[in-house]
Amino acid sequence: MKKTFTHCLLTFLISFCYFQLTYAQSTKSPQKIIIIMMDGFGEDYYRNSDMATLNKMEKEGLFKVVPSLMPSITNVNNAAIITGETPDQNGITGNVFLNPASGVEEYMEESKLVLTPTIFERAKNAGVKSILFSCKTKTVTLLNKGADEAISRETVTPEWIKRLGTPPAIYSSEINYWMMDAALYSLKHSPELGLTFIHTTDYPMHMWAPESAESKQHLHKIDEYLAKLIKAAPDAAILITADHNVKHKNFCWDLEKALATCGISIKAAISPEKDRYFKHHLGLGGSEYIYLNDQKDSSKVKQALLGFKGVEEVISRSEAVKRFHLMPERIGDLMVLADSSTVFGHLENSESDDLPASYRSHGSLYEAQVPLFVYNARKAPSLSYFSYNYKLASWLYQPVAQKVKVIPVDPMATGDGIKMIHGTHIALYNPLKPDKHKLVLMITGTGSTAYGAIKMDSCFAEMGYHVITLDYPNNINSIICKNSSDSTSFDHFREEIVTGHPVSVNTDVDSLNSIMHRFKKLLQYLAANDADGKWSEYLEGGDPAWGRIILAGHSQGSGNAGFLGKLVPADRVLLFAGPQDYLAKFNKPAGWLSAKGKTTPSRYFSFLNQQDPFNVNKQIANDMKLMRMDKADTLHVWPGKPVRGHQHILITDTPTPDGTQGAHSSVLDPQYVNVWEYMLTAGTDEKPAKN
């Protein structure tokens, strides 16, 4: 059955671009789906327990022991199972991470950190209602997007307490039974629910070994609940896997303290295992991210770490990205892997410690094998499809359409002397879409990674454009120049970032790491390594073919895109929420804005929000200088409504639908795909500039 949805693809469905699709599971008579993520359920727990129902499911359905993802911890694997994507795509690399924007260690608990759609969002787009049950609140706050209802022990509503009583303590096996009872209740009383996701806690596994009587009793009771689920929904497909195993560990290192004892200072050592459920594992796990003060320290730190008992491997960020499919901007410079009996994490009073015989944890490669069950599922893929645990439900509610191809590229791989600032560059295109034969170069704002405009980039790719978003030096905010008594402050700031000429006192960018050089080397790299992408079309004599390239930028990036448009004859320039280059002491726009340039002024377009905290009136004044206007030709626009006219400065006052983005970022929301399309295609009397 075909349906048309307003949406766009990142690696699958994202809202607001348009195309025909069909779903892998028919929405005419969708099968009810029950997914269970049994936290900490390794095969040894299964084989040591009396689980007659699960034995039946193994024999009558599909069964396989599969790898889980690294680090072998809950967030990484749960996010991958719920999105059907690896961490390099969904963005979840641990229970905690060092936020590159703030430089502060933060829990990964907010849904905005998830960069790809959840199964609940896919189900909603297929017309299927869903519910999420989790013992752990972090799952509900991180992975609930699209779910019609989401319940955890800490967020349970009075209605649920009235139905089933107060949930037991989080540090108990009984909380798993309560969640199973809640799932059974919803199956019996809410027949409209088509997707039920249940996430148990691994507290029992942290407390008891597989062969213990307590563990056997706990899992036997879980098995009884599986029988009840089958009875309550006999036609439902039941899909089960785990995030990791749990095993005994006897020794711990505090790697930051241990390195300090060796006279080596680092920025941070972060255990991705650390979460708010301290009693489970004390925040200790079998892998750790190391953040360096200086990249030059890498070899020295690596050699020191390899000298510590229990450290099995130390790998670079690029190797960790390649080997474990991690998002580079959300992991450390180095990743440390433990042997089977060692963990890493913060210790209060020592650099190392022996652990008690009862201590059990995970996070290493030694806990990264789990069972996977697919029972009574219509049109499930063959057993060979399930190569990892995250593929458990990745085939459900998927549009039968080619995904946008997203290519992450390590900047350091593109040329000598080029540094990684935040993470990878990204390049996108959709090989099934009619090719526009134009490339959009997107330049993000202050502190943003290349993934900062991924939804917009994906929509551009769905329209048939090739897209590149650069990782580049953008940590210094351009408004540092606002109150300068030097009228050329903004001019020099832009020139150094875009060209690498050493002219600014406010930033330090060499020619190899300038926007122009990084873009050129990335294009050359793509042309040499992705022939199917036809990137060579955007090169002439080894240099960018600017007449086929559209420059775009958000916030600080809009100023960089505008400045670059002065230097090269681009097809057009798209400015989002900027530039901010207004000289307060001179009460006028920066000089570079009105300078003659190689891109035709009538091919500049801007999109602003009336409520932007950076002052929309000054943004308009800046844009008018770029466009050589004496009078602003502004036009108010709305989400989803056709943009009619010939104006170049487009203004909205509409926030994002979910309220997650402020006015300054709202112009990047896919609800405005109608505005973007106008900016990309609006005609002028002049032809695009040629090289």
Show the helix and strand layout.
Layout: E1 2-9, E2 13-22, E3 33-37, H1 43-47, H2 52-60, E4 62-67, H3 74-83, H4 87-90, E5 96-98, E6 105-107, H5 119-125, E7 129-134, H6 137-143, E8 149-152, H7 158-164, H8 174-189, E9 193-199, H9 203-207, H10 213-232, E10 237-241, E11 247-248, E12 251-253, H11 255-261, E13 268-270, H12 278-281, E14 287-291, H13 298-306, E15 311-316, H14 317-324, E16 334-338, E17 342-344, E18 352-354, E19 360-361, E20 369-375, E21 405-409, E22 425-429, E23 439-443, H15 454-462, E24 466-469, H16 489-499, H17 515-529, E25 539-540, E26 543-544, E27 549-554, H18 556-567, E28 572-576, E29 582-583, E30 588-589, E31 604-609, H19 616-626, E32 634-636, E33 649-652, H20 663-666, H21 673-681
Parallel strand pairs: 3-9, 3-10, 7-8, 7-9, 12-17, 23-24, 23-27, 27-28, 28-31, 31-33, 32-33
Antiparallel strand pairs: 1-2, 4-20, 5-6, 10-20, 11-19, 12-18, 13-14, 14-16, 15-16, 21-22, 22-24, 25-26, 29-30
InterPro entries: AB_hydrolase_fold, Alkaline_phosphatase_core_sf, BPSS1187-like, Phosphodiest/P_Trfase, Phosphonoacetate_hydro_insert
GO molecular function, one term: hydrolase activity
Signal peptide: 1-24
